[in-house]
Design goal:
The protein is mainly α. Helices cover 59% and strands 5% of the residues. The strands form two sheets. The protein has a five-stranded antiparallel beta sheet with strand order 6-5-4-3-7, with no helix packed on it. A two-stranded antiparallel ribbon has the order 1-2. Strand 5 and strand 6 form a beta hairpin. One of its GO terms (biological process) is endocytosis.
Length: 589
Amino acid sequence: MSWGTELWDQYDNLSFHTQKGIDFLERYGHFIRDRCLIEMEYAGKLRRLVKNYQPKKKEEEEYQYSTCKAFKAMLCEVNDLAGQHEVIAENLQSDVIREINYLVKDIKEERKKLLQDSAKYVAMINNQVASLERSRKNYEKAFKEAERALDNFQRADADLNLSRAEVEKQRMNMAIKNQHCEESKNEYANQLQKTNELQSQHYKALMPEVFRQLQELDEKRIRNVRHFMAHSADVERNVFPIINKCLDGIINAANQVNEKQDTILVIERYKSGFEPPGDFPFDDLSRGGESTPLILPGSGNTYVSSGVGAHRSESMTVKGTMSAGKLKKRVGLFAIFSSNKDDYSELPPNQRRKKILQKLDEMQAKLHQEIAAKDGLMKMKGVYESNPALGDPMSTEGQLNECSQRIDKLNSDIAKYQGLLQEVECNVSPAGTRKHELTEHNGIGNGSTNNLSNHNNRINTSLTDGRAPLGEDESLSRSASDSSVSIPAVGLNNRYSGETVSLGASRNSLANDEDPPPYYDIHDLPPLGTCTALYAFEATSEGSIPMFDGEQLLIIEQDQGDGWTRVRRQPPNVEEGFVPTSYISIHSS
């Protein structure tokens, strides 16, 4: 079926139909554009929703429960869902809307060109028909004049009163009119032939070609509308896997909700550590004394009775036990100036212990950072001393002093809070405390303390060898400025808890003690493996030892990331020190 043959006489309707098709395509493009705006608006509202419901800083403590953690994870997944809706909008804009705009522009230009051609063809046939009509009218006029001239000649020839000249004149007029009529007839026949030929070409070749191209243009539009609809669905389907992952993430977050775990967290958060109140004493009024009104537990007040053993101090109020509220301390006038809120003394014992443990974790993390910073400064100073062209060694003195002061301050604070922690552990009854958590905090540790395990291990190794921890003697040079760094001896023997170990203490100072403990013997450390020297090395700084190419050595301490490995010579010449890690080949033990 072709428009050129079936709709040869529907030029106006086809022109109107193609224009309506372009209008529909533009309308579909506007629909996709508005949908993109809705997707972007929806994504933006989802992101604002997630932002509005993000936990505030003051609510962070509440988000330790599994329900709150699951809700926070769900917010992250919803935020990812918003991102997928943005992806849908962006892909529709780039893959559909842009292509629709290009297609509309091309179809409009092609249609305009075809309509111009068709208008030209219609004008040509109309002009030819007008020429045919004029030639027909001329022929009709000439024919009537020829008939009139013949009639006049016949009347003149029959009239005997007219002269021969008059008759000849009418005969000549008749001949002229007949000749003119014949010429008009021939012109009319010629125009008729040309018109028929042009009309046949117009309706069988020219206009059908225009209609065919209009038909192809309309079919192209229809095909592309189908493609755009399918592609729009594909754009959305392509993000379904990620959307499903987001939904799976929400389900997984929901599955992490654990009511038993939250119950334990509530207990740990609000447990005061007090014992439940005992029986109320009997007031024997016959013995004298005044009766004191009894206050029910949980009211926040103490009770005092005249009976023996009936006095309960204010510090043992049951408020923290029954309502988990904070204890109120009664302070005198001078206590205003001497009280210190940093010891968390206003909290119940169990909550106070928890706060002190958190404070110790924070300070130990800061101490580790300060020690690492000082070690870096010492190495920089050693490099400057070995190569003054790189910098002035004295330029680091100010920073070293400040770092040492901060480390001393942290040491004193840690010792203070360790004392508070021991005080709390001693005061809390066995039924309401877990003293082994102190060992876990100092030795194994939990939370942020785990980050210090490697640091504590180096402290233990250094103490048993008499060297300063964290590579204090491993730098290329040492001076008297590195004598004030100390850290709490956490993770050591319990009888040394709370003590500090000087980072600047050298191996000789420990070895020269009159009665060094047996665990300070440098030969007690078992070797971790063996190594072979790849190159000869000359010891140029304190703490390092020379070695020759191919020498077999024992590894005492692995490289801690500073490029130096602690080794020991084979007996009988037992000498220990540091060598560059890149100069040796390490073998397994």
